[in-house]
Known about the structure:
- It comes from Brassica carinata (Ethiopian mustard).
- Keywords: Magnesium, Metal-binding, Methyltransferase, S-adenosyl-L-methionine, Transferase.
- This is S-adenosylmethionine-dependent methyltransferase.
- GO terms for molecular function: metal ion binding; methyltransferase activity.
- The structure is a single chain.
- By secondary structure, this protein is of the alpha/beta class.
- The chain is built from eleven helices and seven strands.
- A seven-stranded mixed sheet has the order 3-2-1-4-5-7-6, sandwiched between helices.
- β2 (about 100-105), α5 and β3 form a beta-alpha-beta unit.
- α2 (about 15-30) crosses α10 (about 300-320).
- Mean pLDDT is about 90; it is low at about 1-20.
Amino acid sequence: MSTFPRSYPMSGGDDQHSYINNSSYQIAAINSVGEKTKQCIIEKLDLPLNSDPGTFRIADYGCSTGPNTFHVVQSIIDAVKFKQLEYNNEKSLMPLEFQVFFNDQPNNDFNTLFTTQPPSSELEYFSAGVPGSFHGQVLPRNTVHIGHTSYTTHWLSNVPEHVDDKNSPAWNKNYIQCNNSIEEVTKSYKVQFTKDMKLFLEARAEEIVPGGLMIVLGQCLPDGVPLFKTYQGILVDTIGDCLMDMAKSGLTSEEKIGLFTLPAYFPQFSELKTEIEKNRSFTIETMESVSHPLEDIPLSNQFLISMFRAILSTIIKEHFGEDVIDELFDRVAKKLAKYPIDFKVCEKNVTYFILLKRK
């Protein structure tokens, strides 16, 4: 079984232009729910917001290297400050102090994170980096008042057992992802996803104070829709096809490809809800689909390739070596130019917004 750091999907890859496109796609989603986040904090946060409890603590799980995490943190702080004024009827109070924990895998580039942070003169919070997998506890009990994560929970702690075993019915032959085309593969991925969501929620239940909030933004599948019918699924399958073409040209090997499967699982909406409901430490205050600003816009091949290069280049380099990246994505570009994705017939992923409250 292989283990993949969760920072892969959030990292900038080896191409700054790719990073910008990937970051832009995510920040568009984050900004689109900014007002919803603010209203949820105002309506659902029941903690006493005066200077007596001391510091108000926020954690962003899967922070990567910015800049999305800084936008998220500032929007949460703005909402809490507004709530404090409302809670205290605008009486004169000592302003809250804020501390922010930026969490990601130990191999995350925390130096880049903190050097790209806004200048200290503009910061309204104290910063701390917290290396460690969010599938386990990374902070002391009852530390966090508001937790946040975006576009992270579909990434698994491990590639599921047996999907790279040629003798198993769950062998993910000819594919580099769980695209829901092989039933036994999907079952193996679901088992791992169920395990990881359980660990994620149990860890947050330890860290978040009673009455505190956990905000989760991400993507899943509509009920009854397989990943291979979405443009994201089609594109990753195309990357897999191009790897096979490279193997036929002697640039890599089919054996290496057979041992490579992405540690990511996109559950269906009802699956995700079921796993959250199993945890008795949180109430689901809000769980709904939201519109992504780019969901109705056909994305250019250049944008798609740039975005998925940012998402996948590190994990591909780890397995196949750095030399394959340029050749691989050049081939993907040529294949998409010849066989463009028909967005009109593709099913859409669901962008979801979830607000949990710690009991």
